[in-house]
Amino acid sequence: QMVEGDIRHLDICKLAVRDCEYVFHQAALGSVPRSIKDPVTTNSVNIDGFLNMLTAARDEGVKRFIYAASSSTYGDSTDVPKVEEKIGRPLSPYAITKVVNEYFAKVYSELYGMETIGLRYFNVFGKRQDPNGAYAAVIPLWVKSLLQHESPIINGDGSYSRDFTYIDNVIQANELAAITPSDIIRERLNNYVTSSLTRSQNSNTKATEQAVNLSEVEGSQPQPQPIMEVFNVAYGSNTTLLQLFEALRNKLAHYDPEIAKIEVKIGPKREGDIPHSLASVEKIKAVLGYNPKYSAEQGFLEACEWYFRHLV
Predict the structure, then answer these.
(1) pTM of the model
(2) CA-to-CA distance for 134 and 136, rounded, in angstroms?
(3) Pairing outcome for strands 165-166 and 64-70
(4) Which of 89, 306, 287, 91 is nearest to 196 (CA)?
(5) CB 279 within 8 A of CB 77
(6) Sequential pLDDT tens for the chain (312 residues)
(7) Which CATH architecture has domain 10-311?
């Protein structure tokens, strides 16, 4: 059943999740620049709407709530690669909304026993991504410019880098987040945390608490906690914006040789942009069995072929 509505309306959210055991919550207002221009609407949709979906899922007896989190959560953290347990200060209204989402999900799991899994997406791209509008993502926007024989604009000097993640990898992560049984997640998570503590002399408090909560206490059988985790979803490699431009230009020039002559234009840096984004995917691989099939380069090839066939 297709339900058309607005997640800011609780009754619509309840209708959408009725009789569902698993919910994949992907609705939000994306775009850092849009959130800077209109923080009120971004907050309303991304926080109030998210809370409505959580509440609807709780009231309708949903077993597991899987939601789109974001790499923007890492904010001003300079650590590379980004690991789930250590985030920084949010740099935009959009990032704040995604941090708040994670807190709400954790609290709903603790208070109401509903399983929640957040998937921190890193710069998702792929076929059918809309190249139009003021807040179009960089890859479809640049592909459209190149196909029109126009120079794409890089915000900054092109040295900023991103962990571009092809859509099929994201689909795999969502499927695994839904189908992996709770007891398997607990067992693998305990093994992962124990292994991480063994490798690191400077273990963090959260990891220690997880290990204690997930392990059996001698002489007792504690009630297992509901699943309430976040995972990075990426390929685990980064590409600078200049490298991205060259990759897209080279692949599109295969279809239209004139594109090879196009040069990039340099524009001003954007407010709220983080310099570098590279994910650690060790946790999601260890706990959910994630095995991304598409590198960024392979994804660029797939996307460029699709755009050439549908935009020209």
Answers:
(1) 0.89
(2) 6
(3) unpaired
(4) 287
(5) no
(6) 899 999 999 999 999 999 999 999 999 999 999 999 999 999 999 999 999 999 999 999 999 999 999 999 999 999 999 999 999 999 999 999 999 999 999 999 999 999 999 999 999 999 999 999 878 899 999 999 999 999 999 988 899 999 999 999 999 999 999 999 999 999 999 999 988 877 665 545 554 455 444 444 444 556 788 999 999 999 999 999 999 999 999 999 999 999 999 999 999 888 777 888 999 999 999 999 999 999 999 999 999 999 999 987
(7) 3-Layer(aba) Sandwich (3.40)
Which SS3 state, helix, strand or coil, does residue 234 take?
Answer: coil
Beta carbons within 8 Å of 174's beta carbon, 6+ residues apart? 24, 66, 119
- Catalytic residue (choose from 22, 67, 74, 94): 94
Helix intervals (H) in 180-237: 182-199, 205-214
Task: Dig out the tokens for 43 from the structure.
Answer: 């907050």
The first and second tokens of residue 48, run together, are 């109030």
CB within 8 A of 31, min separation 6: which ones? 94, 135
Sign of CA dihedral 136, 139, 142, 146: negative
- For the question of residue 192 being annotated catalytic, the response is no
Q: At what angle do helices 49-59 and 93-112 cross, to 10 degrees?
A: 20
Q: Which of 54, 43, 56 is nearest to 13 (CA)?
A: 56
Bridge partner list, 247: none
DSSP structure class, residue 82 = B
Judge whether 78 and 60 are in contact, CB under 8 Å.
no
**Cα–Cα dist 124/117, whole Å:** 18
